[in-house]
Amino acid sequence: MKNIFLAIAACACCGGGSLSAQDIYKVEKFSTFDLNGDARYVGMGGAMSALGANLSAVGSNPASSALYRRGDASVSGGFITNSGDSRDAEYFNSSKTKASIDQMGFVYTFKLDDSITKFVNFGFNYKKSRNFRNLMVLNDIPLPVAMMDGQTRGMSQSWQMRDLAQISDRWLDLTDKNDRAMTTPLAILGYETFLIDPVLVDNKVSNYKPSYAEAYHYGRANQGGIQQYDFNLSFNFSERYYLGVNIGVYNIDAQSSLEYEEASLGEDGKPFFAANGQRKTYVMNQEEQITGTGVDAKFGFIARPLAESPLRLGLSVTTPTFYSISSSTRLDIRSHHGHTNSDTGKSYDYTTGYLTTTNDYLLRTPWKVNFSIGSTIGNRLAIGAEYEIADHLSAQVRYLESTSDGPYYNWGIGRKDKVMQYEIDNYLKDVHTLRLGLEGRIAQSLFARFGYNWVSSPFSKNAFLNLYTDSPSYQYSTSTDYANLGSIHRYTCGLGYRGDAFYVDAAYQYQKQGVDVYPFHYNAENRVGEKNDLPAQHLDLKRHGFILTLGYRF
Length: 554
Fold this sequence. Notes:
By secondary structure, this protein is mostly beta strands. About 10% of the residues lie in helices and about 50% in strands. A hairpin with a 6-residue loop joins strand 16 and strand 17.
């Protein structure tokens, strides 16, 4: 059987060390953050960069810690609940509700006997800046009927596998080691499991026959997140000007599980059935694990332009995060096509195959600029607003340069993926974030908070997972699905109690984001065309979060 030799073949086609692809969707995944931190920060929609004196706000404007005149320490924990059917979540071993420690930090204040420099403050804050947990499931979605080689057939993911087996006007011979190195492991595995069959003319491959289907089931469960550690130093000048700087360290720990299943059809348009009468299907499973570390720097400034006014204006700049990332993937396919082993004569109802891939690469996220404004009205009301923009053109992917001593992880030595840069420039957009927050005193020590948070879509409307490029990344891709995320709307509220030293805050957050899901991409007129003949399936990803903070000021 072909699949007996599959692991050897997969390693051979990738030069002994295969790769797991990175793409514009992973660039977005590691470049954007959630609204998370302590409960006061979340309750005000994150609009605290100019108001300051908040540990979580140092992640957006380091100068906010310069407004502290006392030390502060806090810890926050909570849980989130995602939308989706509980049965689906159980099937993917992904609970809908997850508890976590969301924030932990402190700041020390050093008062100086100086007429200009009033305070020098040092702080540290941890927060879970991104929670990847979500579940996207599509059940029994009809596949459209489309033209394939002059015949009307039920569209299948194998149609994209077939396209991947063609370079320019030449069909690859997937029994040849050199030709196998010119396509993706997914196309090779499709060939190994008889999803695409070669058409031979004079013993040369002249085409590939794909499979056909009438409906599909799709599910992808994402878990893990990004942990952010900010080391902060800030200065208070004359109680009117505040400066701060952060060194940020990041840790990525992400997992993803995919199951894709097609209700297969034969060439006669009839379903496949086993001897026991059970419907035969084609099933693909993918498991991916991604880890990484990164570092960035933030510079912030806050000013009170009018000496007698509490109005504060803030500006901060965040450098790109420079990530070193490692990924590993396992891909399994169980094909509905039976066959007979030519050596033993034994017949098989199903063909199975698998491959594993690994990859190390470098990622640079976009530059960010944040503008903020905040003020208080007496001792009753605090208002904050801010706008942030992330420049997608500054994102970049690089490959490691290897030497006899091993790979270099230095950004100046890594090789830029110019083809990936073209995809980033064309299909990712600048991300705009608006944060609004309001806090009111409703009793002597009791406060109520409300916030709104909007984040624009990171993708162009015509964005797609382009597997037909010269990028080394896509040459080793193991999946065809992609999801174009829409804008995010977040609504928050909270309560807080503040004593002389101890305080407790609680907040609730509701988040909604639309997404268009595509299990694969097929364009009948032009395989590299942006238009996808497979219709998108729209889902609304909803999230409910609750967070509680305990703190002490000293």
